[in-house]
Amino acid sequence: MRVKLKLVSTSELESAMVGLSLSRNRDPSEMPNVFKKLWVKADQHNKYLRMIDVTLDMTFPRYFWQQFDTYKIGVNCQSESTMYTLTKKPLTQLNFCRNLPEEYLEYLNDLIIRFNKETPTCLKSAICMNLKNSLPEGFLQRRIVKVNLQTLKRIYFQRSKHKLLEWVYFCDFIKNEVYKNFEWIDSND
pTM of the full predicted structure? Predict the structure, then answer.
């Protein structure tokens, strides 16, 4: 598996504390204990998590991104543009989550060469669409993802025992890398 995952940043914890303190009519400095109590409860009890942003740098295959797109609330993404980056250099086995047959990789690279040699726009468009349609689901795409902590918590509980290894890897990352940035989270929960 050639996926990559990196925590870029976490932010807005202070805003979440202020917001939660409003509903409790207490000082924001008293909120870490309240955070901890509410963390284990369902979504309606931990709305404060929506205020906390987590930014991730993720490289996963197309089949993962299709499932990831299920999570639309609290998620913003910017991705590599297949349209603009696919034809800039030859593809290698490292562009895919698992090795392709060499003949198929050669076929894709031949399409890239043809695309770069063509001048008429109509032919370029046809070759580009053929190339995009020929990409296997294991083609890796990089995205910068900004997600709120409530959505990550939901993803963890919905996908941590998923049959796709990419989901298990992503959920392990949430538990071991993201959660450790927040002292009130007991990662055994």
Answer: 0.89
